[in-house]
Amino acid sequence: MKLQRILNRLQKLHPKEIDLSLDRIKNLCKKLGNPQDQIKCVQVCGTNGKGSTISFLRSILREASIKCNVYTSPHVKSINERFVYNDEMISDNDLSDLLSKIEEVNNNQPLTYFEALTAAFFYGCKKYRKNLVIAEFGLFGRGDAVNILKKNLCNVVTSCSEDHLDWLPKNDRTIERIIFEKTSSLLNSNIVVAKQNSSEIVECIKKNISDNSANKYFFNENYNFVLKENNFFYYEDKYGGLKIPKPKLNGQFQLENAATAIATLRILEDIKIKDQHIINGVQKASHIARLQEIKSGKLKNLVKNNRLILDSSHNPGGAKVLNEYLQTLDCNKHVIIGMMANKNHEEYISYFKNISSLTTVDIPNQPNAISGKELREKFKDIPNVIYKESIQKAIQSINLKENDLLLITGSLYLSGEFLNIN
How many CB atoms lie within 10 A of CB 161? Predict the structure, then answer.
């Protein structure tokens, strides 16, 4: 397959999977004509909530007939998901052509895999330069390849918490360092800060951006929402209030992500988003593998009439909001979990309360995943924890009774494996 051959070659251009510096991608983009300088971009960073916030942004903009190019990572099922142009996921042939151009211009110079993909995305935007661009930058934003823009429309900072600590110096693996990496290089247009897990985190963000001349908008200070009866929530900012039906996406935290998306689009007054666009867009938003209820497929057939939920949370912050949702459900909960090796497994699982069974599994084709057997040992203090080598065997081993819920979680890569099998 042509696309896979190109991807394999790109993965060999640099000895490291990740190298947090910007010289290589800046040099490559210069050879490409600096396509990143020609885009109108909303950049989204943070630890949790980036994908859902982007989903709400896209859905609202779609209602307003505003075309988008979108760059996210990692993908769930196929790498094409990372490249959205004109609101459509790129085809294999078009992605092959795009990456071939990057190979040609780069001429075998050292380049990380992510830098190659990012340069390709920016170059692909040239064909749709009138579109609004939404670009996620992650890990630690200061050295992220997406973070080479000279100007943008807005920076969105979603919930920040501890994750990817192995990329930080051993003596500086703190939330303060994470916030510094994510916010110290934000551009000076607009900054929207979503609801955070504590007032201390909010104050740390404020301190980091205190010298930034951007217009700043904070949840609870400049915009807010309250949950109302009859499946509505009420959003409010300086432009007024808006009564909005709850989104189809599960979880109270999705209201926070929706509110952040609304605040972002309302401050970008030139985009001219109307109230009805927001109302319709929030209702129609969808996000793969985030408290996603699976209603059909090979694996769904194994659980018959029981509810099956797929969730890709993989750090303590994600586990916290996931379990806040689970606590609202009056049923027995069974959990299948697989994780990457560099996660805080013990803290992640500490948020799971009153679960009926826990089954650890391997994540196939992921050399950086922790084995299911080793994960079971880490969770040995939890009652009813067992190991099965695959998702299918794990599902078949669980004795589900009427109204029981089955949850599969712990990793985006596990979610991708589930969806491809299902």
Answer: 20
Q: What is the pLDDT of residues 260-272, one digit of tens each?
A: 999 999 999 999 9
Backbone angles phi, psi at 144, to 5 degrees: -75, 140
Alpha-carbon torsion (258, 263, 268, 274), positive or negative: positive
* CB-CB contact of 46 with 191 (8 Å): no
b/e map 191-229, b = 16+ CB within 10 Å: bbbbbbbeeebbebbeebbeebebebbbbeeebbbeeee
Alpha helices, DSSP H, located in 285-365: 298-303, 316-326, 345-350
The reply to whether the predicted model has a pTM over 0.85 is yes
As a whole number of angstroms, the distance between CA 26 and CA 72 comes to: 19
Q: pLDDT tens, 179-202? A: 888 898 999 999 999 999 999 999
Closest among 276, 237, 12, 41 to 147, alpha carbons compared: 41
Question: Could you give the domains of the chain?
Answer: 2-284 (3.40.1190.10), 292-421 (3.90.190.20)
Q: How far is CA 187 from CA 154, 352, 408, in A?
A: 8, 38, 38
Q: Which of 37, 10, 27 is nearest to 117 (CA)?
A: 10
Angle at 68 between CA 216 and CA 185, to 5 degrees: 35
- Residue 364 carries which side chain, given as an amino acid letter? P
Using alpha carbons, select from 164, 216, 227 the residue that is nearest to residue 190: 216
In angstroms, the CA 340 to CA 391 distance is: 15
Q: Which two tokens stand for residue 192?
A: 């929207």
With residue 199 as reference, give the H or E element that holds it. Answer: helix 199-208
